[in-house]
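Onboarding guide, step 5: your first structure request.
Type a short instruction followed by the sequence, for example:

Predict the 3D structure of this protein.
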Amino acid sequence: MENNEKTGFPMQPFPINSIYLLCKYLYPMKIRYIALIAGSLLLLSFSCENKEDVSLSESESRIIGEWNWIESVYYYTVSGVPYVMNPDTLGYSITCRFDEDGTYRIFRNATLDNAGVYWFETIKYDNDTESPLRLFTREDEYIKSVNFSFSGDTLIFDETEVDGAKRIFLRID
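The system replies with C-alpha cells like these:
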C-alpha cells in the first residue's frame, strides 16, 4: 500500500481525505438544517402558547353601553338618616358610557366630564380569598375600584363598604 504524500499515512481505498471533505461540506448544511428546525420550533412554541381567554364574561359584556344616573344613596351620615341625591336634587344629569375597547366616558349635562379606561378584576386578600369581580377605572393616574351588580336594566355601583354611596344607573340604549 502506498503512503499519502501529505500525511505519510497509508492510502485507503476510500481516502480519509474524502470523508473529511464530505464532512467539511455537509457539516455547514447540517448546522443550517438544525438551526432551521430549532428556529421553526421556537416560532411554533410562541404561536402555540396558551393565551388568556379574551371573550367577555356576562358582567363585562352587560356593562357596555350608556347608563343614566338615577340616584346615589349615602347610608353613613352624621344624622344616621340616609342622604339621597339625584338629578333633580342636584340640578344636573350624569351619563356613563362604557365602550367595548375598555374605555369609559362620563358626561355631566351632556358635556364630557371625565374619561379613562376600565377593566374587571378580583382582589386577592392575604387570607387566600378573593373578592367578587370588581370594576376598576383609571383616569390619568388615579385608579378606583367598585363593587357592581345588575338588576334587569339597572347597574348598581356599591361603595358602602368604604362609607361611600350606592349609585344606581339605568340603561338607555
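Each response can be followed by summary notes, for example: The helical segments are 16-47, 58-62, 87-90.
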